[in-house]
Amino acid sequence: MEQYSDPLDGIFQALADPTRRAVLARLGRGPASISDLAGPFSMALPSFMKHIHALEGSGLIRTQKQGRVRTCAIEESRFAAIEAWMSTQRALWQGRTDRLEQFVTSAENKEK
Amino acid sequence: MEQYSDPLDGIFQALADPTRRAVLARLGRGPASISDLAGPFSMALPSFMKHIHALEGSGLIRTQKQGRVRTCAIEESRFAAIEAWMSTQRALWQGRTDRLEQFVTSAENKEK
User: Fold this and answer.
1) How far is B37 from chain A (nearest CA, A)?
2) Best interface-test mutation with B: which of A19, A21, A61, A75 has the largest number of B CBs within 10 A?
3) pLDDT over 90 for what percent of chain B?
4) Reported ipTM
5) Is A66 exposed, middle or buried (0-12, 13-18, 19+ CB in 10 A)?
6) How many C-beta neighbours within 10 Å does residue A77 have?
7) How far apart are CA B20 and CA B34, in angstroms?
8) In angstroms, rounded to a whole number, what is the distance separating the alpha carbons of residues A56 and A90?
9) Residue B28: pLDDT over 50
10) Most buried of A19, A82, B34, B55, CB within 10 angstroms?
């Protein structure tokens, strides 16, 4: 796994590409070999492997070689980092809405 | 706004940087001027502006200039694209779990 100061850098970088998102969608249905994954893309294998390495580097997938076949599987737990970030962001908005509500309520009470 | 074939490319690209995520976290608490946003970062203004442009290009923030001050605000609706993608991904895993359950149940019924 590559070293990022924050794992989210690598995770979001990995997600910023349509081929990599398509691979994740395919792996969401279950593990698959590299050749099965590469099938739908009109792309040379070395180019496709760069995408696999980016995904593996981010921790979003893991790969395992058995004999001549490398199988890829999604690492669902890694997606928790994205959801945690989204929750934090949402909590900030919520806090802002709550503060606005307090302000309005407080202003209304003063008017009474 | 920059043109990406899929808006998610630009959104995830924008999120793949700690400075840009910190700016989003700050803007989550409410709009702010460029100089207020740049304050906490030991970064030259042109470098900081590149981050602002990346965020604006992705549609995650909008900026507005009034006189000499440019104010940035978060575009909460844009985050819906991330959540939609996560939901689709989660639905695939869920489908897989459901199919596995069906298989196990079916196998158990055959044994009876």
Assistant:
1) 16
2) A21
3) 60
4) 0.83
5) exposed
6) 8
7) 13
8) 28
9) yes
10) B55
Over residues A10-43, the pLDDT tens digits come to 999 999 999 999 999 999 999 999 999 999 998 9
| Partners of residue B93 in chain A, C-beta under 8 Å | 28, 74, 76
Tokens of A12: 């979001």
CA A45 distance to own-chain centroid? 23
A61: alpha, beta or left, given left = phi > 0 and alpha = psi -120 to 50?
beta
What's the whole-model pTM score? 0.84
Length of chain A: 112
Can you spell out the DSSP letters for chain A? ----SSHHHHHHHHHSSHHHHHHHHHHHT--EEHHHHHTTS-S-HHHHHHHHHHHHHHTSEEEEEETTEEEEEE-GGGHHHHHHHHHHHHHHHHHHHHHHHHHHHHHHHHH-
What is the CA A54 to chain-centroid distance, rounded? 12
Total beta-carbon pairs less than 8 A apart between chain A and chain B: 77
Phi, psi (deg, nearest 5) at residue A65: -105, 125
What are the DSSP E strand ranges found in chain B? 32-33, 61-66, 69-74
Residue A3 has pLDDT above 60, yes or no: no
